């Protein structure tokens, strides 16, 4: 099997705040012009210390249509509420998978007890595009707790691969997706290694959350680096140079036009105008601030 070569190892772009609770580095689409379709956006919240606070920090009520938001917690805790009646809290290792589809209002903020105590905070949020046929479907919410997450134990105490979505070594992830997507957390012990095989045409990237790794026996990537791969070859081998956590993303691109306006991700300008009108007319439901 041919090795999938690295296109580039990317350093974290300058951070910005989303609301008052999320300091993020936008790797794409703004930070770097790379093609990660069907992953439209990745905000990486590198590790930061938040001071204790009675009033939780976060992002107030806002709409989405036409895609999914996937939030992965590494440090800290985030609470979620949406206009479809879903709510939940994700703690380190947990994943929140929200399908906005035809339209939803939601809010995200630091969980109350975490806010009162303060401490380290580190998250990733992805926007995953939906195919045109599913953009106006019914919103849904999937909570994937780390304690319930499918995983594969690597040999020789090398660590484990947590399978959020997709399939690794015959083990299927918990989350259901609309298009073929592989999404894992690789938690490697020092000296541990793992091999991944993705179709050549899948867009693939690795986000190094902690530690440092050697890729394909040559290049090194360290914490807060994003590794973007070429669409050539299938096999990737990594080795942990120290205890490491790596977010693995690979997905089949959706070959359809994309038109984005703020929190809406559709296929045509007309659909964007309709989304704005529907939001202004209250058709996304109601959610209290």
From TrEMBL:
Fe cation binds at residues 62, 64, 106, 108. It holds the Pfam family Pirin. Binds 1 Fe cation per subunit. Residues 184-285 form the Pirin C-terminal domain. Residues 25-128 form the Pirin N-terminal domain. Keywords: Iron, Metal-binding. InterPro entries: Pirin, Pirin_C_dom, Pirin_N_dom, QDO-related, RmlC-like_jellyroll, RmlC_Cupin_sf. GO terms for molecular function: metal ion binding. The keyword Iron applies. Its cofactor is Fe cation. Belongs to the pirin family. This is Pirin family protein. The lineage of its organism: Bacteria, Pseudomonadati, Bacteroidota, Sphingobacteriia, Sphingobacteriales.
